[in-house]
Design brief:
Blueprint lengths: L3 E4 L5 E3 L17 E4 L5 H8 L2 H5 L1 H18 L3 H37 L5 H26 L5 H26 L9
Antiparallel strand pairs: 1-2, 1-3
Length: 186
């Protein structure tokens, strides 16, 4: 079994044999490291190291922001460029609910692996806001696929819906970062 050490300053964990003078994360001297024993099961550690949920949440956030910016751009353009921008909004808006569902599923799986349940107060808030994010993403999809995005009103509606989705994504990020220092049970 590999001998692990943990930086007392920042909490960075690494193999003792790979420590070369300073903490690679924060730069404090090697003397700031202490022996560390892994407290989570190997399977849990492996699944968490895949970072499924942290990676998946970036897609709906990026899609929402892109739809917002493209909607603003479409309001200022005409002709062929406008048509290409609208086509891009339709593709991103149509795919948005799929990315939100995948992020929600990854979050529920991550919560189950990380905390053994998803009924903690913060995780329940994340699920509720995630459901609201899904609602707005479905509204964006519906507007993108079924509404004529050639009118100013439909583009303003798309801008508003995407702002609401961005707000949900931002709130979910804040809730997620509040869990960074949470200790894993068993």
């Amino acid at each position: 079994m590999k001998e692990l050490v943990r930086c007392k300053s920042c909490g960075f964990i690494m193999e003792k044999g790979k420590l070369h003078g300073v903490c690679p994360a924060c730069g404090v001297p090697e003397k700031m490291f202490e022996p560390y024993i892994e407290k989570i099961a190997p399977f849990r550690k492996f699944v968490l190291s895949l970072d499924l949920h942290p990676i998946m949440v970036h897609y709906p956030q990026a899609f929402s922001m892109s739809v917002f910016l493209l909607s603003l751009l479409a309001l200022c353009t005409a002709g062929g460029l406008h048509d290409k921008i609208v086509s891009t909004i339709v593709v991103l808006g149509g795919a948005l609910p799929i990315t939100v569902v995948l992020a929600l599923c990854a979050g529920i799986y991550d919560g189950t692996i990380r905390f053994h349940r998803v009924t903690t107060p913060i995780l329940k808030k994340k699920i509720a806001v995630g459901a609201l994010f899904l609602f707005f993403s479905c509204a964006i999809c519906g507007a993108a696929v079924f509404a004529p995005l050639s009118t100013r009103q439909s583009l303003l509606t798309m801008t508003g819906l995407s702002l609401a989705a961005i707000a949900c994504g931002g709130f979910l990020s804040r809730l997620g970062t509040s869990l960074l220092n949470a200790k894993f049970p068993g």
